[in-house]
């Protein structure tokens, strides 16, 4: 579907199309993206349609609301996530999970010469890290010998069904099933009930035992918010945003590395110049010096953004900078996936994986966020962007330095590009089966 939209957008003289049957205007024009996300921000909220789709799962969480509710949560989250202490806390969690869970799991697979679904590993890893960051507890979902917890299973199911609502031919279908409490909507209600029970229990225990000495998001937000249901909505929203996006970005990054061993070699060369040979995980300061690694990560997400498109709803009749007329109530979608493949945006080599396009004399350089809206832009720019990047770079660098990871031969021979499942984030169909071998480093 994303490739079809890309094809249509490339043919459009303005980089904008209108799908009449869906009432959806889709654009890959950076000027339009800036207009929607910044210039006329107030005219393009998420809207009631979007809120209805994710309302049962996210409630009044930051990613599902507009207006004053959004402004309050945005201000509160900006204040908390900007603190040095919480960024240090997040980095400690990631480093701990890499050393205590990720390394042992992949080393075991290496010794047994088993094929591993790297996407599933990343999904479990990112769930554990974001859960610890949000609730201060470790669900240990990366421990494959243990059964998947009720919370993880319910969360996965609720996310999947909520995404299916978004791609439903008609919202009337899922809304009717919801009223009748049948089929997928019955499963969704049951899954959300499980999520609520476990989340409520954690919140009650934290209030009972005290929260002032904890660094997790729940504890920090408790000092401001007394409403436990509201707390649940906020934390579950961050859980959803921080889990699948990170897993998606890491999956496609390692798929691209398998196709471009020269990029992997360049990352190793860069780290060898900055890190001590005995180190397994780079420090926060060392990663800031790794410009090529940052460029490779950005370039990967240019071609395969974790969220492939995003939609808003027009409040009042409007005209986009490219002259497109937008009627009140129209869904307006900016298409990150297509934008990364537009020659008019990125040049004639737009389909090539070239980290060097982000470097100027070896130094990483940002581009206009509306040309690269992977983290959105304007007032809704992703607050967790920096922490997500640190997590992704920590995992990627640690695995590249410790293991040789190769896509399984059967997949490499039959798949030229990843195929994605429909969903809120880009999930590779069939996962990413890989073979892992622990590197034998020279003593010199």
Automatic annotation (TrEMBL):
Gene3D superfamilies (UniProt xref): Cytochrome P450
Binding site for heme: 382
InterPro entries documented for this protein: Cyt_P450, Cyt_P450_E_grp-I, Cyt_P450_sf
One Pfam family linked to the record: p450
UniProt key word Protein transport: no
Single GO MF descriptor: monooxygenase activity
Cofactor field: heme
Superkingdom classification of source: Eukaryota
UniProt KW keywords: Heme, Iron, Metal-binding, Oxidoreductase
Similarity section: Belongs to the cytochrome P450 family.
Protein name, per record: Cytochrome P450
Source species: Camellia sinensis var. sinensis
């Amino acid at each position: 579907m994303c490739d079809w939209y890309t094809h249509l957008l490339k043919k459009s003289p303005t980089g904008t199309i209108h799908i009449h049957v869906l009432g959806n205007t889709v654009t890959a024009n950076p000027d339009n993206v800036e207009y929607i996300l910044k210039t006329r921000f107030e005219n393009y909220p998420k809207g009631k349609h979007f809120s209805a789709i994710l309302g049962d799962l996210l409630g009044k969480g930051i990613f599902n609301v507009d207006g004053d509710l959004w402004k309050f949560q945005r201000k509160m989250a900006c204040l908390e996530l900007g603190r040095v202490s919480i960024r240090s806390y997040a980095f400690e969690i990631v480093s701990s999970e890499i050393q205590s869970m990720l390394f042992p799991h992949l080393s075991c697979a290496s010794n047994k010469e088993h094929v591993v679904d790297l996407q599933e590993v990343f999904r479990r890893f990112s769930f554990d890290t974001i859960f610890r960051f949000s609730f201060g507890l470790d669900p240990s979902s990366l421990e494959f010998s243990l059964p998947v917890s009720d919370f993880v299973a319910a969360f996965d199911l609720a996310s999947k069904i909520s995404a299916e609502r978004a791609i439903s031919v008609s919202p009337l279908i899922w809304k009717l099933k919801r009223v009748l409490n049948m089929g997928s909507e019955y499963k969704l209600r049951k899954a959300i009930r499980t999520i609520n029970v476990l989340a409520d229990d954690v919140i009650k225990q934290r209030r009972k035992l005290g929260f002032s000495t904890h660094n997790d998001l729940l504890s920090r937000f408790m000092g401001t918010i007394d409403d436990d249901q509201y707390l649940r909505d906020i934390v579950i929203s961050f859980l959803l945003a921080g889990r699948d996006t990170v897993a998606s970005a890491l999956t496609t990054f390692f798929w691209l590395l398998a196709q471009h061993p020269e990029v992997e070699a360049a990352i190793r060369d860069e780290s060898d110049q900055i890190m001590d040979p005995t180190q397994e995980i780079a420090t926060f300061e060392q990663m800031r010096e790794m410009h090529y690694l940052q460029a490779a990560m950005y370039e990967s997400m240019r071609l395969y953004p974790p969220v492939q498109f995003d939609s808003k709803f027009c409040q009042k009749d409007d005209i986009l900078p490219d002259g497109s007329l937008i009627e009140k109530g129209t869904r307006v979608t900016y298409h990150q996936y297509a934008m990364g493949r537009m020659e008019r945006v990125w040049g004639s080599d737009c389909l090539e994986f070239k980290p060097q396009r982000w470097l100027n004399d070896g130094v990483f350089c940002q581009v206009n966020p509306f040309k690269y809206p992977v983290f959105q832009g304007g007032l809704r720019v992703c607050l967790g962007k920096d922490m997500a990047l640190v997590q992704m770079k920590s995992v990627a660098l640690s695995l590249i330095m410790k293991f040789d990871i190769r896509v399984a031969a059967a997949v490499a021979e039959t798949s030229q590009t990843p195929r994605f499942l429909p969903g809120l984030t880009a999930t590779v169909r069939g996962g990413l089966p890989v073979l892992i071998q622990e590197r034998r480093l020279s003593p010199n």
